[in-house]
Structures are given as C-alpha cells and as structure tokens.
C-alpha cells in the first residue's frame, strides 16, 4: 500500500530536507570530490575507485513513495486545466489543453507521464541496485520503468565509451528515461558533505528525453528539456531511513523558469508490496 500523508515526515526530517534542498539550490555541490577521494582516500593515492567503491552513502534497497505534498495532484489524475504551481508559458498551456488520455493510449503514447522528468512524482516503489560497478540502476514498479545512472568520473577503463556523452546510435536515441550521467558530490567541502569524512550525495543529470508530460493531465516537456537531480539519504532516531530526491527540470520550450520539486521515499523490507504495472494514461500510477 502506498504511503500518503501530509504529516509523515517529522520536524527533524523536514528540517534536514529543507537544508539539503537549500544547499542544492545555492549551488554548493562539488561533483567528483567524493568520487576522487572515496571514503577518506587521499587524492592521487593509486587508481581511481569505481563508483560503487567510492559511494559515500548507500542508496540501494527498496523504497516506497511517501506523498507529503500536492496529494490531489499525485494520488489522483488532475483535471484538464489544473496547472497550479507550474511555471508554464502560453504554448505549454495551449498544448496541455489538447490532452486526451484515450488518444495517448490508442496511439501507444501511454507512457508520456512516466518519463524521467515526472516518474519520481508518480506514486510507487523503487528498487535501487548496482547493475555494474559504475552504473546504478533504478527499477520503478509504476509503469514498469528502468533508469540507469552512469558515472562519468570513475576509472575510464572500467567505464568504457558509454559513460560520458552518448556517442553511439543507440545512446543517441531519445527514450522516456533519457540518458543519465551521475557523480558523487560533496557539499562545500565541510560539514556533513565533506569528502574527507566520506559523506556526500548523488547528483544525476539527464538529457535526451523523449517528450512527455510533467503532470498526468498533459502538461508537456519538450525534447530539449534537461533534468538535474540530487539524491540524499538520512535516518531518524526511530530507525526509519529516508531517500530524498530534489528534482530540477529546465525546459526552454515550455517553462518560464526551472521547475523544482522534492520527492520523499521511505526504505521498506525487500519487495514489500512490489507491484509492477503498465503505463496507464488515465490512472495515477
């Protein structure tokens, strides 16, 4: 059963989430610093670690969405014309006004609201695990989607040509989940995010997404949209472990400014409630 509550995150959690999001928005992240040093490893001391070996935190496991905001926009399919809190331009509103879920379903475009720019807002469960030493895989039961976070600053020999900018025909093809490049990042080099202390967070940048919907009711994002995400974990005194995803969508075609959201996930026992569903144009998940 999905978790939906407006008061599930304690005061401690809310404070930490706000501080993390503020640090991200102020541009305090320093990508690669953690990657280069690993858990306290001095710079220049031997070959670069793989992304898995350098990980400053463990994001693996099963996680369930906890809807702490905008419940009526995420747990339900919003009606046509509901654009609250979205920085849309006139063209985006015009396109959204033509939304027809039956037409999307019939034309094979039922996954438009399950693309990378929106999938973390869709209620569901995640399974995060390492596909290999330099690729973190995220399986999502809603829409049965899979994301791959490819680390670009691990050992080049281990990464091969695929890790950097896409350069093959397959990599250049636009997909719902786009092409994601990841890096471990430290926050300003001191405090909780200091690399020398072995802590930091995951930064993921996604491009080459197939055009889709930011919201279930047809609000569009275009093929030149980019997605920047910052993932962090923390634990509460009661033992609950949380994953926070701060998402920043930039789209010169349809948005007047970056669209920022924060998505919360709680760690759960393995495969608890795992429920793969197909993409559905007229359902919340």
What are the salient characteristics of this protein?
285 residues, alpha+beta, two-stranded antiparallel ribbon, 8 helices, globular
Question: What is this structure, in a nutshell?
Answer:
17% of the residues lie in helices and 30% in strands. It is of the alpha+beta class and 285 residues long.
Describe this structure in words.
This protein has 285 residues and is α+β, with helices and mostly antiparallel strands. Helix content is 17%, strand content 30%. The protein contains 8 helices and 13 strands. The strands form 2 sheets. It has a 9-stranded mixed β-barrel. The radius of gyration is 19 Å and the shape is globular.
Structural class: alpha+beta
Distance between the termini: 13 Å
Spans of at least 5 consecutive residues with low confidence: 5-43, 154-164, 189-197
| Discrete helix count | 8
What oligomeric state is this? single chain
The overall strand count is 13
Query: Hey, roughly how much beta strand do the residues contain?
Result: 25-35%
Please describe the biggest sheet, giving its number of strands, its sense, and whether it closes into a barrel. 9 strands, mixed, barrel
Average pLDDT, all residues: 82
Order of helices and strands: EHEHHEHHHEEEHHEEEEEEE
Please state the CA-atom Rg, rounded to the nearest Å: 19 Å
- The dominant shape is globular
Please state how the strands of the largest beta sheet are arranged side by side. 3-4-5-6-7-8-11-12-13
Q: Helix coverage percent of residues?
A: 10-25%
């Amino acid at each position: 059963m999905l978790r939906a509550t407006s008061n599930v995150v304690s005061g401690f959690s809310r404070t930490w989430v706000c501080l993390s999001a503020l640090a991200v928005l102020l541009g305090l992240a320093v990508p690669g610093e953690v990657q280069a040093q690993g858990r306290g490893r001095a710079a220049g001391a031997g070959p670069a670690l793989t992304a898995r070996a350098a990980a400053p935190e463990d994001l693996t496991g099963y996680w369930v969405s906890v809807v702490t905001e905008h419940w009526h926009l995420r747990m339900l399919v919003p009606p046509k014309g509901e654009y609250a809190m979205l920085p849309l331009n006139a063209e985006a509103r015009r396109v959204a006004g033509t939304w027809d879920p039956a037409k999307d379903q019939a034309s094979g475009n039922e996954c438009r609201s399950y693309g990378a720019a929106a999938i973390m807002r869709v209620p569901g469960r995640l399974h995060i695990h390492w596909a290999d030493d330099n690729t973190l895989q995220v399986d999502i039961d809603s829409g049965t989607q899979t994301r791959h976070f490819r680390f670009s600053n691990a050992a080049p020999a281990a990464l091969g040509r695929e890790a950097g900018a896409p350069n093959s025909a397959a990599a250049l093809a636009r997909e719902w989940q786009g092409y994601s490049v990841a890096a471990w990042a430290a926050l300003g080099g001191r405090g909780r995010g200091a690399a020398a202390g072995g802590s930091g967070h995951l930064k993921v940048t996604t491009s080459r997404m197939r055009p889709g919907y930011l919201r279930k009711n047809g609000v569009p994002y275009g093929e030149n949209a980019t997605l920047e995400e910052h993932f962090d974990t923390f634990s509460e005194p009661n033992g609950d472990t949380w994953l926070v995803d701060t998402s920043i969508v930039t789209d010169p075609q349809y948005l007047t400014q970056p669209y920022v959201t924060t998505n919360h996930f709680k760690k759960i026992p393995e495969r608890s409630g795992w429920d793969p569903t197909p993409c559905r144009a007229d359902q919340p998940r």
